[in-house]
Amino acid sequence: MSSYSLTLQNLTKSFGRRLIFKKINAEFNSGNIYGFAGNNGSGKSTLAKIVAGVLSPTKGKVIHQFNNTEIISEELHKHIGFVSPYLVLYDEFTAEENLLHSLSIRGLNPDKEKIKSFLNDFNLFDRKNDLLKGYSSGMKQRVKFIFALIHNPSLLIFDEPTSNLDVEGKDTVYKLIEEESKKKIVILASNEESDLALCKTTIYIENYLQLKRRIKDKA
Amino acid sequence: MKSYSLFKKDWQSELRTRYAINALAMFILVTISVILFSIGQERISAHLTGGLLWVVIFFSAMSGLSRAFVSEEERGTTMTLHLLAKPSTIFSGKLLFNILLVYLMNFAIIILYSLLFNSFIISNWGLFILAALFGSFGIAVSSTIIAAIISKASAKGTLYPVLAFPILLPLILTLLELTKFAIDGKTITESFVELAVLICYDVIMLTASYMLFDFIWKD
Q1: Which of A12, A201, A202, A218 is the most exposed place for a label (fewest CB within 10 A)?
Q2: C-alpha–C-alpha distance, residues A39 and A205, integer Å
Q3: Which pTM value belongs to this model?
């Protein structure tokens, strides 16, 4: 079985003079769900972006390892699935076109059957030929989940995963998180109690200068 | 292949949104019309007409080619690209898109110019076409990397021509010289030095762009 591990070493981020967080150290392993929690503006999304490799830390290092081999930053996108309110897909394309383009840009086979199955799972099949600009925010959120999962990544980072979703959508996402976490690392950045309830370990980012890490063992 | 897929996505997106094509087409028509009106019945020399051709090309490039990266930044889809491919793939895809756009733009400008300006008489079309081919490639490479740099800035519209002017100046000067030679009927052998400078410019800009892009792309 393939294993994925993630290590945060003395991670510090500041925007100009504004310190967001300081010296975060943590380790993550496959088969678990982890949480990033904290007040608005505490840096949850920033930390999620740094872990996903779309933002650089000011100091410190993020080490991604797949089968005990370190992944170079250029190859990171192959291993990561990311859902975030800041992630925007192409409004001028349909859901199916967005997913087909994402697969072909990744160099993967643009498998229409696979896309069809994902669209069915997320209850979007009937609207697959509509342009994304006609979608509601909840429907766009569902497409983002497919976008994050379609290349079968080993690390899933979900920033505010249930925002804009209805009850049915939330249930689908929670089932998906539990299923995916059996073999992968799943990180949830959220303030929702129901989201964090799924996490084995939660990192609480409490303010700019202090970071307290509380371990919540569910075993 | 991944770069080609990105290019295909951009081209399909461009055909639907017409971000760059409309800007380029309008600019070409307006600039050539203004030149025609300002000349009126005056007879201008072939050298001056040749010079004005590159003025039209330079400013048309300024009006449309920044869209490659600016449109992604404005729509918020930059993060999506980060998650899809490595930086060199993204640069190659965007470069392919700008190369196609520059060649189409320059082809349209040269055809219009030949039809509308009686004083635009090229004696050596072979030399002129060679210069236009290498020159257009240089414009595409320079415009793409400048677009990547300015896409992160707040005053994109102002910064683009300001930054492009010193970078494109050696290229434009060489192209002006080669156009003069083509009008005078000089052979390719006689214009060897200028052609070599043009090719060196293209190679240097292409190499420097690939080396720089990694740093520009990551925040």
Answers
A1: A218
A2: 8
A3: 0.88
CATH of the domain at A194: 3.40.50.300
| Global ipTM | 0.85
Min Cα–Cα distance to chain A from B211, Å: 14
Q: Nearest to residue A163, comparing CAs of A93, A82, A83, A98?
A: A83
Residue with the two structure tokens 């930390």: A47
pLDDT value at residue A1:
62
Residue A12 and residue A19: Cα distance in Å, rounded?
8
First CA to last CA distance, chain B:
26
Q: Which of A111, A130, A152 lies at the terminal end of a domain, its last residue?
A: A152
d(CA B4, CA B10) in angstroms, rounded, equals: 10
Q: Mark the ranges of chain A whose per-residue pLDDT is less than 50.
A: 208-219
Nearest chain B residue to A98 by CA distance is B9
Which domain does A39 fall in, by range? 1-79+154-165+182-219
SS3 labels along B17-86: HCHHHHHHHHHHHHHHHHHHHHHCCCCCCHHHHHHHHHHHHHHHHHHHCCHHHHHHHHHCCHHHHHHHCC
- To the nearest whole angstrom, how far is the Cα of B154 from the nearest Cα of chain A? 16
